[in-house]
Design brief:
With 344 residues, the protein is an alpha+beta fold. It has helices at residues 9-16, 19-30, 78-91, 148-155, 157-160, 165-179, 188-191, 199-204, 212-222, 238-247, 254-292, 295-319, 324-331, 335-342, and strands at 37-39, 43-45, 52-54, 57-61, 64-71, 99-105, 110-115, 123-129, 140-144, 193-198.
């Protein structure tokens, strides 16, 4: 191994802790020139009872609050989790949102300070998915808020089967009018974007986009047998030179090498678990439920098969030397569940 894997969480944060690197990535991916860049804290406790929420990287670029997060393996809750991160990045603006004065009694001219929500900035969330593609063929897919009229327009089969061009154009005009309505800052809704980026697709179908270089670098560094020649194309670029300096094996500590081995074991175990869950566990549960002929049987069979496979994966991960914390994270089992089968 010549370079540590950029896709591993520790090294991703090590690289993106450099603001110049983060800014260049955003400029390349968004195909823009950033004129204002401010790094923001990554760790936050949202409520008194909530666990700490930690983003991989958070910054503000040209009046847009931005998150970059790396996701290595297929987590079933990733859509909801990153939507939560996305909305939290809006909520965290309350920390710095300015106030304005409202006169609440015209006779006494009594005023009250309230937050000026017009000063909210839009949020951009980029989720860098290493292996997962969410069943998309594209390099990335973005989601934003739009009037429901847009979805209704696209889904209205009556407009699209043997369409009458006049009716189609009239409906399109109506939808465009709704989308361009900026009354009381309605356009703020569509300025918020959540992007899922698919490394697996990007490295398979390169077409000359500025951002492709980043994912090609990440893919090469994933290979445990990577060598110096793999990174020749990146040399001479100031930003990539700094990335390579941070990931070069000679700059790694003994703990870094232990982390790499531990992470590789966990990812291998997770891949096995995914294959079992999405194939064997599902099919077994489906077959048992179908044989009993009702939904309850299906659910029970699926749940029992799923639980048993989780325990099997946990045993395998334990035998591979992974820590209790890593196993609970990978399988969703509690430490008590794991202790129970360890002492069987």
């Amino acid at each position: 191994m010549y370079m540590a894997p950029l896709n591993y969480d520790r090294f991703f944060k090590k690289v993106f802790s450099d603001d110049k690197i983060a800014q260049r990535f955003l400029e390349d991916f968004l195909d823009v020139t950033i004129t204002s860049f401010e790094k923001l804290p990554e760790k936050h406790r949202v409520t008194d009872d909530a666990a700490i929420v930690e983003f991989d990287y958070r910054c503000k670029i040209d009046n847009t609050y931005t998150i970059i997060d790396m996701q290595q393996w297929h987590k079933p809750d990733l859509v909801q989790r990153f939507y939560l991160y996305h909305t939290l990045n809006t909520g965290l603006q309350l920390e710095t949102l300015p106030s304005k004065q409202l006169i609440i009694d015209r006779k006494t001219r009594k005023a009250k300070d309230v937050r000026d929500y017009r000063r909210m900035d839009p949020v951009l969330t980029l989720i860098w998915l290493v292996d997962d593609t969410l069943n998309f063929q594209e390099n990335y897919v973005g989601y934003t808020m739009a009037p429901e009229l847009v979805m209704e327009f696209i889904k209205d089969k009556r407009l699209w089967y043997k369409p009458k061009i006049k009716a189609l154009l009239e409906e399109r005009s109506r939808v465009l009018k709704a989308m361009s309505n900026r009354t009381k800052y309605l356009d703020f809704m569509s300025q918020n974007r959540l992007l899922f980026i698919f490394q697996k697709n990007i490295v398979k179908q390169e077409n000359g986009a500025r951002y492709e270089k980043w994912f090609r670098f990440a893919e090469k560094s994933r290979n445990k047998k990577n060598v110096e020649n793999d990174f020749t194309e990146f040399q001479g670029d100031e930003v990539f030179d700094e990335m390579m300096r941070r990931l070069y094996k000679g700059a790694l500590s003994e703990d870094d090498f232990i982390y790499i081995e531990s992470e590789a074991k966990m990812l291998k175990g997770m891949k096995e678990w995914e294959e079992i869950f999405f194939h064997d566990g599902y099919l077994e549960g489906h077959a048992e439920g179908h044989a009993e002929g009702h939904a309850e049987g299906h659910a029970e069979g699926h749940a029992e098969g799923h639980a048993e496979e989780k325990l099997t994966v946990a045993r395998n991960l334990l035998n591979m030397g992974l820590s209790m914390e890593q196993i609970t994270q990978a399988t969703g089992l509690s430490p008590e569940d794991i202790d129970a089968f360890v002492h069987e």
